[in-house]
Write a structure and sequence with these properties.
Radius of gyration: 23 Å
Helix content: 25-40%
CATH topology of the largest domain: Mannose-Binding Protein A, Chain A
Number of domains: 2
Order of helices and strands: HHEEHEHEEEEE
Largest sheet: 8 strands, mixed
Number of helices: 4
CATH class of the largest domain: Alpha Beta
Strand content: 15-25%
Number of strands: 8
């Protein structure tokens, strides 16, 4: 009987790095399982042509079915190129668009330009965007100057502490919010920047 064993980090890494290492190991396990499943399927087909009723073929078939069960237990809560964090999926763009086009890009993949729900999420997004580049979030005061609202229409009731010092200052008609360095900044909505989409993770429950 074939078994697959992937040893994750022997010592759990703290915080964001630990989560990232765990996710990479999970993806490698998933890919390895798919490769082995494909290989066994080919073996079954080849053996079937040679001797459909042979004992060896039956043994391979049982191994294939067992491996299929293991693969079915694996679940990727987020699509490829999306990152999972606390039950949500995040897409960090590799290209740049203005704020409105960024919001549209998220809608096209059934997501939303990111809205911050808690401090832990803010920390995760700030750290990631700091590495990848300044990125749009779903916050603006385009409808009324000084009245910041999220893209879903809800007002900015908290998280004011995350504005960078002296921001928002509305310099040069800056009506859209971005992740910049260690906090938030208001910037002209027409400027092209990276963007972050957010949607709920897929359920891994099985019948």
């Amino acid at each position: 009987m074939m078994t697959i064993y992937v040893e994750a980090n022997k010592q759990q890494q703290p915080g964001f790095l630990g989560w990232l290492s765990h996710r990479n190991g999970f993806l490698m396990l998933h890919l390895l399982s798919i490769v082995l499943l494909t290989g066994l399927l080919v073996a079954v087909l080849v053996q079937g042509f040679k001797s459909p009723s042979s004992p060896g073929n039956e043994k391979i078939y049982k191994q294939l079915m067992q491996l299929k069960v293991e693969v079915d237990r694996l679940c990727l809560p987020c699509s490829w190129e999306w990152e999972s964090f606390n039950g949500k999926c995040y897409f960090f763009s590799k290209s740049q668009r203005n704020w409105n086009d960024s919001a549209t890009a998220c809608q096209e993949v059934e997501a939303q330009l990111v809205i911050i729900d808690n401090d832990e999420e803010q920390s995760f997004l700030q750290q990631t965007s700091k590495k990848k580049g300044h990125a749009w979030m779903g916050l603006s005061d385009q409808k009324q100057e000084g009245k910041w609202i999220w893209i879903d229409g809800s007002p900015l009731r908290s998280f004011m502490k995350y504005w960078n010092k002296g921001e928002p200052n509305n310099d040069r008609e800056e009506d859209c919010a971005e992740f910049k360095d260690d906090g938030w900044n208001d910037a002209p909505c027409a400027v092209k920047k990276y963007w972050i989409c957010k949607k709920s993770a897929m359920s891994c429950t099985r019948n």
